[in-house]
Every structure is written in C-alpha cells, then in structure tokens.
Write a structure and sequence with these properties.
Catalytic activity: ATP + protein L-histidine = ADP + protein N-phospho-L-histidine
Distance between the termini: 43 Å
GO molecular function: kinase activity
Low-confidence stretches: 1-14, 45-62
InterPro entries: HATPase_C_sf, HATPase_dom, Put_sensor_dom, Sensor_HK_TwoCompSys, Sig_transdc_His_kin_sub3_dim/P
Largest sheet: 5 strands, mixed
Protein name: histidine kinase
Order of helices and strands: HHHHHHHHHEHEEHEE
Enzyme class: transferase
C-alpha cells in the first residue's frame, strides 16, 4: 500500500510507471497467495477438492482492481486482526520471560501483564503462571481472527457467487465447444478411415468376384486365382475395420483395464519405455479412452520427434481425477503449432473438462501431464 501511494504521484512526472507496474505485480502475487491460504483455511478447497467453487477459485486470475482493493482492505483489516493476536502473544512472552530480566530494571516493573509489581525473586518466579490466561485468550482469539481475515479475503478476491458461477459457465461453454469440435474431428477421421481404406478394399472384392464369376466357366483356374485375390482383399478390409473399431474404443481396455492397455502401448514403443502405476482405480470408460489415446499420442511424439533414449509413463488416480504423465529425455522444444499432436491431446482432454500441461524447454526434457476428472 505504501508503494502504491508513492508510485501513483510519481506517475505524474513519468518516473513512477515502472514502480507502479512492480507494485501491481506484487499486489497480484500477494492477493493470489492470500486467497489460496484463505481457501485452505475456510475449507473452500484444498488438495483433492472437487467442488465447483474450489475449482473456480483455483483457476482464478484476479483483476487488478480486486488486487489493489484487497491491498487497501488488508492494510486495515490485517492490522486489526494482527493486533488482536499480537497483544496477548506479547503478554505471554513477557510473563514467561520476567525471571530473565526483571532484575535489570531500575524500578519495579509496574504496570506489567501480570498486573502487579515485580520487585523480588519469589514474585518473578511465579509470574510465568500469569501467562496461562493470556494463552487461553490467545487460543480463543487467534483462530477467530484468522477465520475473519480468510472470509474477508474470499469475499473481496473471489467475488460473489454470481461472479463465480458466471466464470464457471463461460468455462463450461468453452469446454462444450471444444468437445463438439473434438467429436466432429473424430467423426471425420473415422469417415476418412472407412472411405479410404475399408470401402476401397470392399469395392475391390466386389470387382474381383464379378470377374471371377464371368471366368468361372471359361477359365476356372484363373477364376480361382482371382477368388484368392478377393479373399486376401476381404481379409485386409476386415483388418482395416478392426483398426477403425480399436481407434474408437480399444478392446484391450475392456479386457485388461487402463494399466494393461498402456503396458501394451509401452511394449510396442520403439523407444525404451518404463511404466509406473500408482494407486489406479477404474474410471469411466470415456475417461480411460481419452487417457489411453493421450498416452499413445505422447509416445508417438516421443518416438518420431524427440530423439529420446528413454521414456517414462506414470498413471495414477487420486479419487478426484485420473493423472497420466509421459516424460522423455529428448531434445525438447515441442510446440502445438508444429503439428506434434499436442493440440489433439489438449482438445481430447478438454472435452472432459480436463487439463493438459506441456513442459518442453529447448534441450529437453519434455513432460506432458494430463488430468482428467473422474466424476461428472
């Protein structure tokens, strides 16, 4: 607050602008920290919280007006709350330490927290007992002052319920649009796979069988060879069809679960791969499919683009979400705009209101973390 009071007048002469920007950044950092602490204290969310209110607070990016407003409010409210706790705390320390320094005073210690003069060693030695009521008072006031300060921080920084709901509605709307786009892209992919692969092979089977039918009476040997070609084409069409089905919902997920399915992925990965499975509970089928394909795409990226020599995959659930992490020791520098498949992972995960975090500095390593909510 002091920095702000100096920075604003200095902006008039042009030298306070850099200072003002630093003060605003400091206010934002301080208010975000205060909101996080208040959220933990009041039960508005914490590690593993699942409420919409906690999620909205966790994803909050406070407007500058709220940050500056909280700085002004906290300058008064924080001082009062601190004083309520500070006074009995000083009294406790004073009573407990009286035997250490009372004799150094030129006159008897009057007044003092014990409310009587300390003018002899016997009196000084029993004075620490006077700290007991102050300790009780401190135990009574401290949590209430902290709760008051926390509720005030939430009210100022997090806004009212309508603001939180509006932010959540906007987020859900954006997530729904991404889900629809991901669904449309998946339908287009399936249509292309069926049209370019399976359909062409089935048409070839039909043509070969037609030719074989015409040759059956005149040249049975050639007709038999054409039937064999048609049979091979039909087998290839069935293989293509199975691949398309697996790309929609891999049967291995039903048979072996997510851990078994990812084990199969890591076994097929051309780069040496290690799989670590933490506490892993079964998630909804759609969530497991999204996690499976996210890991599959991340392993494909590592094999094709990273130049990695080792890849590590971690799977776990925490009761609220399914976490999948793929790390490699490659060259790094992965970016969504370079066609690395990260955009597809992010879009697939966002359809479930999940989050994707990519860390890939130049020189590596690259880490892709995916979090998918397990409860809807």
């Amino acid at each position: 607050m002091v920095g702000l009071s100096f920075a604003v007048p200095l902006c008039v002469v042009g030298i306070g602008i850099p200072l003002l920007s630093k003060v605003v950044r400091a206010a934002r950092t301080s208010s975000s920290r205060d909101l996080e602490r208040s959220r933990l204290l009041t039960g508005g969310g914490g590690p593993g919280a699942t409420t919409e209110r906690a999620d909205a607070l966790r994803r909050r990016t406070a407007p500058t007006s709220q940050d500056i407003g909280w700085t002004a409010v906290n300058a008064t409210a924080g001082l009062l709350a601190g004083a309520v706790v500070f006074v009995p705390a000083v009294a406790v320390v004073s009573c407990l330490t009286v035997p250490l320094w009372w004799w150094a005073l030129p006159d008897p210690m009057v007044p003092n927290p014990a409310l009587y003069p300390v003018d002899s060693w016997p009196v000084a030695l029993v004075t620490p007992l006077a700290a007991v009521p102050y300790l009780a008072l401190l135990a009574f006031l401290a949590p209430r002052a902290a709760a008051f300060h926390a509720r005030l921080a939430e009210r100022v920084l997090a806004g009212d319920g309508r603001a939180v709901l509006a932010a959540r509605l906007a987020e859900v709307t954006a997530s729904r649009a991404e889900a629809l786009e991901a669904h449309a892209a998946e339908l287009r992919r399936i249509e292309r796979a069926l049209h370019d692969g399976t359909q062409n092979r089935l048409v070839a089977v039909r043509l070969h069988l037609g030719i074989a039918e015409r040759l059956l009476e005149g040249d049975p040997a050639k007709a038999r060879r054409i039937v064999e070609v048609a049979q091979m084409a039909s087998e290839e069409a069935l293989a293509d069809l199975r691949d398309v089905v697996r790309s929609i919902y891999p049967p291995v997920l039903s048979d072996r679960g997510l851990a078994g399915a990812v084990t199969a992925l890591t076994a097929r990965c051309p780069v040496p791969c290690t799989l670590r499975v933490g506490e892993l509970e079964r998630a909804p089928a759609a969530v497991e499919v999204a996690a499976y394909f996210a890991v599959s795409e991340a392993l494909t990226n590592a094999a094709k683009h990273s130049g990695a020599t080792r890849v590590e995959v971690l799977l776990r659930t925490d009761g609220r979400a399914l976490h999948a992490t793929v790390s490699d020791d490659g060259r790094g520098g992965a970016a969504e705009e370079h066609g690395s498949g990260i955009a597809g992972i992010r879009q697939r995960v966002a359809a479930f209101d999940g989050t994707t975090e990519v860390t890939s500095p130049p020189g590596g390593p690259t880490t892709i973390r995916v979090e998918l909510p397990c409860a809807f």
